[in-house]
Amino acid sequence: MTGRPDSHVPARVLQRMTGLPEDPGTQPLPVNWAMHYGQAALLGVLRSITAQSGLREPVASAKFTVVRLTNDQILENATGVGAPPTTWPRAELLHKAVYGFVTGAVADALAARNGPGPGDATPPAARAAMPAQGRFPARTVTAADPEPQRMRTPATAPTPAAQARTAQAPAA
């Protein structure tokens, strides 16, 4: 699609990681696709988790792109196949960035269907105006809360007895 030549690197990495035989003169397309799409799917799950946690928008996608490049570097250099990104053609870096931002846009759109996640930086007043949907309830923070950053869910919300003990505790 971008016109860049096919890379043999994903296949070589998978061959070395699994002990499959290598033939440097050929392009093992099924092995290449298995590694290419396998990595994309596994890392896509990571981006989905960040989006579900409320870490969304282009900044999160930029950070994810760095994770994608780091993953490539770890696997490629550990197997002796890769080269540093500074030696890569710019089209390859652009390809990785497009993957990172498209994956981020899809993950963000899917996560948005569940409402803001617990890591969403939306101000409390704006969050209160949003519909209460999705699995992640909005955080409840009070002045008496000893752990104001802790997310309160029905399972971890303090019991009435615990609330009474907190209210009666002497100020330090």
Automatic annotation (TrEMBL):
Region (Disordered): 113-172
Top-level taxon of the source organism: Bacteria
Biased composition range(s): Low complexity: 119-134, 152-172
Name of the molecule in the record: Uncharacterized protein
Lineage: Bacteria, Bacillati, Actinomycetota, Actinomycetes, Kitasatosporales
